[in-house]
Amino acid sequence: MSGAPFTWRERAFTIDARCLEGDPVRGAWVHVCALPDRAARIPFDQPEVQQVRRDALAWWIPLLGDALVCISTLALDEVHYGGAVTVARSPEHFGQDPFARLFAGTVERSDDFCAVAPPAGPILERYAGVPWPGGRFG
Amino acid sequence: MNLSPGQRFPDLDLPDHTGRDRMLSDVAAGDPLVLVFSRGWWCPKEQRYLRELTELQDEFEVAYSRIAVVSVDAPEVQSAFRAGLGARFSFLSDARRHWISRLGLQETTDTTHDPYLPTAFTLHPDLTIHAAYHGYWYWGRATMQELREDMRAISRLVRADFDGP
Predict the structure, then answer these.
(1) Is A120 close to B90, i.e. CB distance below 8 A?
(2) Total-model pTM
(3) Inter-chain touch B89–A121, beta carbons under 8 Å
């Protein structure tokens, strides 16, 4: 598992590759919590980035339930968080997306994303530059 | 079923606290795992133990290790219990008692709830059992320090760069 290129509003990110591998879910709703501004980035190790992933594991993913298609942070490089995407079969809960605390969310439709089993943890990236929750050791 | 150290733990297929079907190997996802069998939300001993485990989760989250809890509570009950604890790890529901007798982990003295015998296993990423703890009596349970030491021992074996790259 690794990262895959993901372009949004002419910004180049890396996304958990599993989100784009397999059978795509047609007409999925995508909540992109990122900004077009290239200065909108935060080091991955900042406490607010760790906390938002804790919130994702604690209640965001359970809240979405079966509606969740996949979730990934958007890496800019080996150090910086550029945002996150949550893909769901309904936009019903996007107003509560914890990742929107860091960068405001934009709702879009897409046929590109695939269903990925939600993560059980951890809250840290495994390798520099590989978006959470992708990547594994060994 | 032989659940002794060195044996491979069965790859349980159970719904998690959100009702999604999960495999234990997917929950481990290549990391060392603490697998706790718990009586259920109603038991004060389980409440006490899982509160302690919840405090430990911060360390697990930065140490690339996992925690999973199995009980006979229904997923929606587990979800509420998990939220009350503030836990971020996965709960797996065996409300249908699919695995409890196959694993030989029934608590036969509680005929009201028909729960799991409080038991914990520390597992390698491939689900090989490192250690087993039997917590019918509370003092038989793994202490948080024992779990840390087991995670250290497993990580030392499975992380080639454990002593530094």
Answers:
(1) yes
(2) 0.87
(3) yes
Residue B108 DSSP label:
T
**Quick check: A1 pLDDT over 60?**
no
Q: Residue A98: inside a domain, yes or no?
A: yes
In sequence order, what E strands does chain B have?
13-15, 21-23, 33-37, 66-71, 90-93, 119-123, 129-134
Contact A137 B159 (CB under 8 A): yes
Name the residue among A62, A120, A137 with its Cβ closest to that of B27: A120
Chain B residues within an 8 Å CB radius of A126 = 64
Q: Which domain holds residue A26?
A: 3-110
Q: Kindly state the DSSP code that residue A57 receives in the 8-state scheme.
A: I
- From the list A94, A83, A84, A72, the residue with the least C-alpha distance to A20 is A72
Question: Any idea which architecture B13-158 has in CATH?
Answer: 3-Layer(aba) Sandwich (3.40)
Tokens 């309904």, residue located? A90
Residue A125 lies in a domain: no
Question: Closest Cα to residue A68, out of A19, A121, A6?
Answer: A19
Interface ipTM = 0.74
**Per the domain annotation, does A123 fall within a domain?**
no
What digits encode the pLDDT tens for the residues B94-146? 999 999 999 999 999 998 899 999 999 999 999 999 999 999 999 999 999 99
